Automatic annotation (TrEMBL):
Keywords: ATP-binding, Ligase, Nucleotide-binding, Purine biosynthesis. Its EC number is 6.3.4.18. This is N5-carboxyaminoimidazole ribonucleotide synthase. Residues 371-404 are annotated as: Disordered. Homodimer. Pathway: Purine metabolism; IMP biosynthesis via de novo pathway; 5-amino-1-(5-phospho-D-ribosyl)imidazole-4-carboxylate from 5-amino-1-(5-phospho-D-ribosyl)imidazole (N5-CAIR route): step 1/2. HAMAP family: PurK (MF_01928). It catalyses: 5-amino-1-(5-phospho-beta-D-ribosyl)imidazole + hydrogencarbonate + ATP = 5-carboxyamino-1-(5-phospho-D-ribosyl)imidazole + ADP + phosphate + 2 H(+).
Amino acid sequence: MTFPRVGVIGGGQLARMMAPAAEALGVGFHVLAETETACATEVSAHVTVGDYRDYATLKAFAETVDVITFDHEHVPAEHLRALAAAGHPCRPGPEALIHAQDKLVMRAKMDELGLPNPRWAQVTTTEALAAFGAEAGFPLILKTPRGGYDGHGVRVIHEPAEAADWLAEGRPLLAEEKIDFTRELAVMVARSPMGQTAVWPVVATYQQDGICKEALAPAPGLDAELATQISADVLTVAGSLGVTGVMAMEMFETADGYVVNELAMRPHNTGHWSQDGAITSQFEQHLRAVLDLPLGDPSAHAPATVMVNVLGADRDDLYHAYLHVMAHDPQVKVHMYGKSVRPGRKLGHVNLTGEDPAELLRRARHAADYIAGTDPNPHPDLRTGGAEHLLGGGTGPAAEGTRS
């Protein structure tokens, strides 16, 4: 029997980081990239360049592989249903993926499952937005249900007039109460078609201008009962939605527990720490799951792992700064995506594992920001840049994932 071939729709950094995992597993790896210069094309031996919105292109690509998965969540659901009907497995399938594609669908599902949601409403008029604001209180959060990412498609609204341009477009919008939270959390889960599951430790995250900048695994000071509840809840979501592959659930930690923020059904920025910090990375696990292979152990290698993103700034020559970082701190693991520099663009990330979360954060921040050209100090002050949100307080749960 020949080893299977996985087809990934999308040629971004997530597809790029799946490629080494596919090579290690011995499975074929094919990419449908948007352009010839998409960063995953540099590491994949089998590349098709085409439009993922065109069904004929998707169908031709599907015929070259045994299973399809995704680098992003933008493929039209009707195309995925047609592929599945034609005998081409898509994992996750369209019925699951819609909960990551449409935030209104996701909010309704969280309510149905009884998971902690913010107060929310679908609004299409200024009057409806004003009515919801009177109920939930201003300011509130307004989102485009589809297409938003990394801070795009999200606004803080202090009065209905600030949403007039979006409302004029005539499309439904998602209005949410603004949550008073202590820090942001995330958890990754994997689920295979046979129903096997694996959950990584809950992580603390820090957002900069709507983009995930840092993640710390496991989340320090997280109440053990809350960590257990989050792990159980994300398994409920994955099972109820029929997820195949890995899924991220992003959350707000509150005084009373947590509130669901968003879902992503693919490898996710908040799981990048697992490349160097877990026995099985999210990229290997995703491929195992979509191929229905036995899942790997998600437990952490060390008491703490920090991931810090390299976000584009004004520096174009990243290579010489990258050499400095390697020489300055040989324990830092640098992952670059082969992208051109653009301000705010995710160009790579660094991981660092060890004992002391605060010290790891200091070193990883210096490495990532030095590469980007934004580090003003070779010994940055840990107290700046959101550390208080990541570190929490008290003693965190054991750095173990769960597998069943």
